[in-house]
Amino acid sequence: MSSAHTDTFCRDHLPPREQWPELRFDLPELQYPEQVNAAHALLTGPPDEHPCVRGGGTGDEDWTYGTLRLRAHQVAAVLTEDLGVVPGHRVLLRGPNEPWLVACWLGVLLAGGVAVATMPMLRAGEVAAIAELARPALALCHHSSTLPDLAAVTYGGESELTRRCATKDDSFPAVDTAADDVALLAFTSGTTGRPKATMHLHRDVLAIADTFGRHVLGIRPDDVVAGTPPIAFTFGLGGLVVFPLRAGASTVLLDRTSPEQLADAVAEHGVTVLFTAPTAYRAILAAGKADRLAWLRRAVSAGEALPASVWHAVHDATGLAIIDGIGSTEMLHVFIAAADDDIRPGSTGRAVPGYRAAVLDDDGNPVPDGTPGHLAVQGPTGCRYLDGDRQETYVRHGWNLTGDTFVRDAEGYFTYLARSDDMIISSGYNISGPEVEQALLAHPDVVDAAVVGTPDARRGALVTAFVVLRAGATPDAVALQEFVKAAIAPYKYPRIVEFVAELPRTSTGKLQRFVLREQAARGEACGSR
């Protein structure tokens, strides 16, 4: 392959090849040409007049494929002709989910640049840390998301980039990037408190659409897609941008939407495919908005494990069979999932076509079915950290080790137990924190729950629950403990129950258990025992 990058920063900072996972391209659709530009591929296909992307919050942007093609090519022309961007330059993006952010992301790739999308909720210090790692040549910021210390070209409204784009046409020729040129740097959402940059190639962008998007979701040209994850989060990038564009479908972009507003938007825009987290589905039901999901034919859940109780509650109320899935920033998107008749509530699913998965012991050997172990994955995408001092932690024995403890059954279904560091060893028992969480969430008064271990000299650790109750509910730790004992093995019940107003979460909605573990270790969790 012939790299198009004249700025070789990304190639220079890839891990050594011997530290890469084994990559697999077993499906015919994964046989990409040596030179491919992912943005050009995503923009090729549907006629100009086909609906493409809508700004679902304000309603002031409603673009066809022809409009998005024009805008993306205009952005690429401005970047190269006016702003000096060359292939390989990193371009930092910052803004809410709306059509211009999609045009900017595609324009960066068309120009041969490397997109570095950041969450608009990040503070100046967090963005500065990302910039220090990525060393962007330029930043493009929505006019509502500028930062005092970030020199950026603004877009949207009457801002600089928008004005410059008006002087360009759609004749910009896409840079002939290599399939293995880096297309984006994706930063982990910081559940450990220390973000990392993962590097993804042009072929990776297409591969997630040609595996999970094609074989599990089956998105069609007549679908209307929407969801809550930010585009800077790879779950959102795939679900709201890559998958619909690859299928010729349309997408509605919503920004910072409450579950109730999300349900109303589904009905208002005729959304047929929805991407959000388990907590949002549960909140929609609690708000009495289940009827607003009537348009949906696909409901997708990721970001956290989907409790069986939530799956059944949504199915009973709407008839929808939620598609659960597990992915990671390091792998770009979902690699285990199940849809339709393959779904088994409580199980994440089976390896997505194009991927293979296994459960391994500490030495990298497969464990017998039914035995907990480390989830290991191989496929067309894989972990490559930017200057990663943890590359050899995530990639071992040719596998991507996700940091999750799973169990597989004889039929190839994988069931999530916990993050590997969330397994609680108490009095010699291995206890899955998420299993206790699911038991708590089945209680009608519990809105949210998280379970961690509190260090204990006698037992090793105490199962500790942080619980958010519905408005008006009376805190009763003993009642919750008895409820859990009746639902799962009694030794798993939370010996400490702490009632809190909310749980610490990242900007993408992921639970920050490390914050709770630190709080518990400091002795700040002191509820009923």
Structural summary, described in words:
With 529 residues, the protein is an alpha/beta fold. The protein has two domains: 391 residues, 3-Layer(aba) Sandwich (Rossmann fold), CATH 3.40.50.12780; 95 residues, GMP Synthetase, Chain A, domain 3. It has a nine-stranded mixed β-sheet with strand order 2-1-10-9-11-12-13-14-15, sandwiched between helices. Helix 10 packs across helix 11. The protein is globular, with a radius of gyration of 23 Å. The model has no long low-confidence stretch (mean pLDDT 91).
What does the secondary structure layout of this molecule look like, with pairings?
Blueprint: H1 9-12, H2 38-43, E1 51-55, E2 62-64, H3 65-82, E3 90-94, H4 99-110, E4 114-118, H5 124-134, E5 138-142, E6 153-155, H6 160-165, E7 182-187, E8 197-201, H7 202-217, E9 224-227, H8 234-247, E10 250-253, H9 259-269, E11 273-276, H10 278-286, E12 298-301, H11 308-318, E13 323-327, E14 334-337, E15 350-351, E16 356-360, E17 373-378, H12 391-394, E18 395-396, E19 399-408, E20 414-419, E21 423-426, E22 429-432, H13 433-441, E23 446-456, E24 460-469, H14 477-487, E25 496-499, H15 513-521
Parallel strand pairs: 1-10, 3-4, 3-5, 5-6, 9-10, 9-11, 11-12, 12-13, 24-25
Antiparallel strand pairs: 1-2, 7-8, 13-14, 14-15, 16-17, 17-19, 18-19, 19-20, 21-22, 23-24
Helix pairs in contact: 3-4, 7-8, 9-10, 10-11
